[in-house]
Amino acid sequence: MGTKQVKRHDRIVQLVQERGSVSVGALADLLDVSTQTVRRDLDVLCDGETLRRMHGRIELAEDRLNTPFDQRAVHNLSGKTAIAAAVAAKIPDGATLAISIGSTAVAVAQALRDRRELTVITNNLGVAMALSGEVSNRIVLPGGELRLPDRDFIGADVIGFFGRYRTEYAIFGVAGVGLDGGLLEFHEAEIRAAQRMAQSARMSILAIDHSKFGRHAPALGGTITDVDLVVCDRPPTADFAPLVEGLGARIHFAEGPDRP
Known about the structure:
Elements: H1 3-19, E1 21-23, H2 24-31, H3 35-45, E2 51-54, E3 57-60, H4 69-74, H5 77-88, E4 96-99, H6 103-111, E5 119-122, H7 125-131, E6 138-140, H8 156-163, E7 167-172, E8 176-177, E9 182-185, H9 188-199, E10 201-207, E11 219-223, E12 229-232, H10 241-247, E13 251-253
Parallel strand pairs: 4-5, 4-7, 5-6, 7-10, 10-12, 12-13
Antiparallel strand pairs: 1-3, 2-3, 8-9, 9-11
Helix pairs in contact: 2-3, 5-6, 6-7, 8-9
InterPro entries: Carb_Metab_HTH_regulators (IPR050313), DeoR-like_C (IPR014036), DeoR_HTH (IPR001034), NagB/RpiA_transferase-like (IPR037171), Tscrpt_reg_HTH_DeoR_CS (IPR018356), WH-like_DNA-bd_sf (IPR036388), WH_DNA-bd_sf (IPR036390)
Domain HTH deoR-type: 5-60
Protein name: DeoR/GlpR transcriptional regulator
């Protein structure tokens, strides 16, 4: 396989990860090749494990797809509430913070409703709406197309957006955490945005529930050991005990470490 073909295959996978699904015609336009070339590439790439063809479009295989937002929002609601309260307790009035996409991030924003004079940099419309009731807050959103049903903004412009601000806190989640501590997302743009947020903040806070440990997602960016503070509802399975022990005081369990 030639170098150009390898690069084109990598770009196709990246585009599908970022957008969820892409048509053959759109890929041909984006890659500046013929639709026949794209179809030959897809004969190799669409193995059913990573990418698949569906009704003239290419999308991530079923087990690589993210759970719909509204379903995630009600999953482990008590755990998310505990995580959100623990994170919010660390944020004072007047703080400057960046908050990422995801249902746990929205829960954190809801827990911050009694704070005043916050400056919030976010690509999460749910976060913005949750904090918009306090008129002393300043809320900054990126431009661009709103992704539905997640109600957020992703893409290269969002990465640059977070790079233009310096914050005291960066609060973000991830789709999964590998046994090696790798932070995983469904789209490369999502994890790059989280990395940029963390790099631009004095303190990075990863807010995740225990079910994210061991959950697979295709895009990798950074490790959990890079994060200043991890707030989780309860300890993950025993497979992750060495990882948890290595984090020491940098991981906090909002529901207590002894909960089964």
